[in-house]
Structures are given as structure tokens and as C-alpha cells.
Amino acid sequence: MSKGVIINLWFNNNAKEAIEFYTSTFKHSKITRINYYTNVNEEITGHKEGDVLTIEFELLKMKFIAINAGPEFQFNPSISLMVECNNQKEIDHYWSKLSANPNAEQCGWLQDKYGLSWQIVPKQLGKMLTKGSNNQKEKVTEAFMKMKKFDIEDLKRAYKEGK
């Protein structure tokens, strides 16, 4: 029986830098293991013995592995990591730390300096979009479609307006 899903992230030779950045950004996060390249297949991997191969880490109690590979694969917005925030302060914190490409921002989505996409969303949004009337859902959707970073107070106003 499997123990769960672990997300594996491919980095272009900057995995250690990226993971140190992520674990400093998220409270209750840590690096749990670092594995290193051996002298096997140096000519294929381009990595020397002792270079970082993988880093196992946790963000908000979720397990990840980062591979320190090369430029063969890149992140794209079709995969994103969603962070549910309790309040505007948390949204503002993660947004200011993670957002590195203003052109990639829309509806709570952003892209960090490593190319990884994130969704920074208020926990209340799910409730607004599932528990409200059709009019409330429409008003909330209209409001957030205009936003880059979510504004909880604006979403609450839209929800109330739809009553």
C-alpha cells in the first residue's frame, strides 16, 4: 500500500538554492535529506561526484523531492502549487516572497523566480464558490477575475452584493 503522493520538482542546477528559499518562506518547513551524485555516469548527467542530486523537504507538512538536474525540462503554469491562506496577511506574505513575474499574475496565480507557479488563495474562496447562491458565485467570480493578488475584503463585498 502506498504511503501517499510526493511531488517531485525538477530544477536547472539550482535545487539547493530554491529549496532553501522555499523553506525560509514557509513556516514549519524543513529539509529532511540531501542525496549527492556519485561518480557513476558523470558524462551523462554532467554532474560531478558530491554535487547535490536530490533534496527531500517539507512545506506546510507536505513532502516534496527536488532533483538538481539540468535545463532539459522547465516548469510551466499547467502545474501549480496552491496555498490556502487564513487571512490577508498570509496572502500578502506569500505574494511578496514568491511573486517574481508580474506578467504571470492573474486570479491568485503567480510565478516565482524559479519558474514554478503558485496559487495563493484565501480559504474562504472555496466556501463562497460552493455554498453561495448562483448570484453570489457570479459576483465573487467577477471580482476575482479582475484581481492579480486576492483581496479578501473585496471578495467578501462581492459575496454580500450577490445576496
Kindly list the characteristics that best describe this protein.
single chain, 163 residues, three-stranded mixed sheet
Largest sheet: 4 strands, mixed
Figure out the total of helices: 6
Low-confidence stretches: none
- The geometry reads as elongated
Question: Measured on Cα atoms, how large is the radius of gyration?
Answer: 19 Å
Residues in helix, %: 25-40%
Helix and strand sequence = EHEHEEEHEEHHH
Structural class: alpha/beta
Describe the structure.
Helix content is 35%, strand content 26%. The protein contains 6 helices and 7 strands, in the order E-H-E-H-E-E-E-H-E-E-H-H-H. The chain has helices at residues 15-25, 42-45, 88-98, 123-131, 134-145, 152-161; strands at residues 7-11, 30-36, 52-59, 62-68, 80-85, 109-111, 117-122. Strands 1-4-3-2 form a 4-stranded mixed beta sheet, with helices on one face. A 3-stranded mixed beta sheet has the order 5-7-6. Helix 4 (123-131) packs antiparallel against helix 5 (134-145) and helix 5 (134-145) packs antiparallel against helix 6. The chain is elongated and about 65 Å long. 21% of the residues are buried. The model has no long low-confidence stretch (mean pLDDT 94).
